Input
Amino acid sequence: MHDFKFITYSFQDGVATLTLNRPDKLNSLIGAMMLEMFSALGMAAQDRAVRTLVLTGAGRAFCAGQDLSDPSMSSRPGSDVPADIGTVVETFYSPLVRRLRAMPKPVICAVNGVAAGAGANIALACDIVVAAQTASFIQPFCKLGLVPDAGGTWLLPQLVGRARAVGLAMLGDKLSAEQAQEWGLIWKCVAAADFEAEVSSLARTLAAGPTLGYVRTREAIDAAATSTLDSQLDRERDMQRELGASCDYAEGVQAFIAKRPPVFVGS
Output
């Protein structure tokens, strides 16, 4: 365990778990909390023993988005000039999402309750999103006259297409976890009673897998959004060349021939 105030960070059997820990505030985000998240993500990225990261929330919510009472969202005392929300995004949200997307190991988001605003988009920035059946996803930015941030304007159309992305962003309707799965916004919706076991099983599976192969898979799929087929074929060639020289590929082949489970080392 590590000494954080607004999150908890733990590690066991190859799996690091980062838990947003302001349950009385529905894990809404403040600057200090996001700095702690950034620090924990850095630790997970650098620790070779960590093979998978799980991001989740304490209590009944995953994350209700930005805490609007955070001083960074308020005008300076005695000033009529509004807070520069762009600076908040540039200082906290953009680096956080970039770090999630660049993690050198797979990231699972376990959405245990409501995921709203930036909280929803931080969840969607993870590799695999598993949500409890009681969870929901909301893009409430339109209620404040804002646009989805934390990558929302890129993630939503990539995941559900333009029509649904625009509807979610302009109307701010609550999307159930079941509907989110049906639309392809998330990987899986799980009954609340089975949620923790499902997340644990998935995390163990990924932690025992070929980590570098997972990361290159994410990179290739992300690149496809702006690539031509020819560019993507070249990218696949280059990645296969790299991965074909890896320890995990050699082990995978040997295990296949020997008809035994592979023991991957993550490189």
Observations:
- The first strand starts at residue 7 and ends at 12.
- The beta strands are 7-12, 15-20, 52-57, 61-63, 107-111, 114-116, 128-132, 136-138, 175-176, 188-190.
- Residues 211-258 form one domain.
- The CA atoms of residues 224 and 232 lie 6 Å apart.
